[in-house]
Amino acid sequence: MHASYRSSLRVYEPIFAFEGAARNRWARYAARRRRQGSALERERYAMLSAVVGTQVDFHRLNIDEEALIAEWGENIVVCPLDTRDRALQAIVDSEWKLPFPLSDQVLGRTARRKAAGLQLRPKPTEDEGKDHVVTASWEVPFWWALMFTPSDAVPTDTLESIVYRTSIVDALRRGERALELISQTFGVTPFISDLDVAVRWLRTFDLDSMVELDYESLAGLLHRIRPDGDDSMSVAADALEYLQEGDLDSSLASYREYASTWEDVGRLEGWN
Fold first, then answer.
1. Which of 6, 51, 150, 210 is most enclosed, with most CB atoms within 10 A?
2. Based on the domain organization, do 60 and 184 belong to the same domain?
3. Are residues 157 and 96 in the same domain?
4. What is the extent of the structural domain holding 168?
5. Does residue 7 form part of some domain?
6. C-alpha dihedral over 17, 22, 25, 29, to 10 degrees?
7. Could you tell me if 119 and 201 lie in one domain?
8. DSSP secondary-structure letter at 157?
9. Residue 4 is assigned to a structural domain of this protein
10. Cβ atoms within 10 A of the Cβ of 168, count?
């Protein structure tokens, strides 16, 4: 089953950072050491089976919570996938993410209203109400790239996978530096609101956490457009360095180069 065309920013927390029943549950889950790929496949199957048909089957979203497991430093870290919450939010967001009248034909207002109502109900399990995963369709947001460097790339044997990992401390430091520098240059504007939201989100997690940027199925598309490889982290870093040096023209040129790459990827959405 193929992934949807999106990128994901994930936070993996050490098991000791969870509290109460959640800590015990994720400790047992990690001990079983489920394969990372299978967890994502089970999530995709649940989401697709819920929406394929004449109407949304919300019962199919009531699945056992899955997680991704990794080793970071000396800790086993866990990223709960928050499948049910993200699926409900995607159904609600379909009103503005899909063009009219396609939005009503694919899901419909009744389904969106029910999804919004289910969001208000208590979850079967509580993990402090935090989302550990955020996604973006058909792009890797510029603000996410500012939190990583090329050296954070995870070695891979395939061009169909691009993943970056860094400590949450480094991600926060880079994000806060970018936020401060851009604010000093342009003032507090809506332009950087997404970066501000991302930084605030990261601040809610344990400082021993790991942050992962996964291009998912966008990696293969990017390789077809940029066969020499991904340079998004370098281009984003250049934009910030030029800005710090006061070279606004070069900074904007680097930003446009970054945006142009993902605009080329985004055009494939229309063809799709």
1. 210
2. no
3. no
4. 136-272
5. no
6. -50
7. no
8. S
9. no
10. 21
